Amino acid sequence: MLRKFDVASMSADEITAADLPRMVADAAACEPDRIAVAHGMDTTTYARLHDEVVKLDAAMGILLGQASLVPIALATVFPALADSARGDLRNVLDALVIDLVDCVAPAPLSAAG
User: Fold this and answer.
1) What's the domain of life for this entry (predicted)?
2) Which of 38, 70, 71, 105 is 20 to 30 A from 81 (CA-CA)?
């Protein structure tokens, strides 16, 4: 699959919240039905998460900024995340970043071919 976002040389620790909308878009383009997030018994795909980010960006992107789009979109898809004081949103974001790196980073080429 074509992976447009160059995260091959980045670790999950180097990715910022501002990088997430583009990474979600790239994941939705190459693997739209892949589960992006699981929270409790609910899941959402990259396609649905991307749709939420796009809608939020169109409605309030200039006011929110790129760094807020994915966290707020996640809270829209999973309203319980917005209500949690236990750090659930942070945990979900951490898991999302790890999966995004796996999804949109090109696999390293084997030296053996």
Assistant:
1) Bacteria
2) 105
pLDDT greater than 80 at residue 93: yes
9-58 pLDDT, tens digit per residue, is 555 567 788 899 999 999 999 999 999 999 888 999 999 999 999 999 99
Distance of CA 57 to the CA centre of its chain: 14
For the chain, the DSSP string reads ----S--TT--GGG--GGGHHHHHHHHHHH-TTSEEEEETTEEEEHHHHHHHHHHHHHHHHHHH-HHHHHHHHHHHHSHHHHH-SSSHHHHHHHHHHHHHHHHHSPPPPPTT-
**Residue 15 φ then ψ, to 5°:** -80, 135
Closest to 70 measured CA to CA, from 36, 107, 21, 8: 21
Strands 35-39 and 42-45: antiparallel
**Where do the structural domains in the chain lie, given as residue ranges?**
14-104
CA distance between the termini of the chain:
18
